[in-house]
Amino acid sequence: MNVLEINVLVLAYLGDVVYENYVRHFLVNSGIGNVDSLQNEAVKYVSAKAQARFLKELLEADFFTDEELSVIRRARNYKGTRHPKNCDIITYKYATSLEAVIGYLDFIGEQNRIKCIMKTILGGNIC
Fold it and tell me: Which of 4, 11, 12, 38 lies closest to 92, judged by CA?
């Protein structure tokens, strides 16, 4: 299957799992031993608002390749109108775009690139 033919929301569906798994590992490795505390900290990374902010920061830093930017644009411009009640449609589209690019990279087996993105998001340092 050609990855460019996959619906960007399907890529985001995949990327959501990969992204959240990285965040959970990061938080557990940080030494937080309480599930409620883990959940409270996770929201700082996995909420639509946080994901949109991270994507915007990476875009401003000219972080992404042309292929990754293509996926991001496809996801951001997708004509869907659904979004969670706790954020606006623009924020949701940016968050979905971050998840879509991670799903795209996972699908094509670019695990090192995903690690770089997540290291940048979680550590604040561009790799």
Answer: 12
> What is d(CA 76, CA 69) in angstroms, rounded to the nearest whole number?
10
Distance (Å) of CA 74 to CA 28, 31, 86 = 33, 38, 23
Examine the residue annotation and report whether 16 is marked as an active-site residue of this protein: yes
> Which whole-number Å values give the CA distances from 18 to 23, 100, 103, 111, 116, in the listed order?
9, 10, 7, 10, 13
Q: Is the pLDDT of residue 81 over 70?
A: no
Dihedral sign (CA 118, 122, 26, 82): negative
For 31-68, the pLDDT digits (tens) are: 998 899 999 999 999 999 999 999 999 999 999 999 99
- Kind and range of the H or E element at 26? helix 8-29
User: Residue 52 corresponds to which amino acid?
Assistant: A
Q: Tokens 């619906």: give the residue.
A: 7
Evaluate whether 106 touches 114 at the Cβ level (below 8 Å). yes
Out of 16, 36, 66, 106, pick the active-site residue: 16
pLDDT of amino acid 33: 87
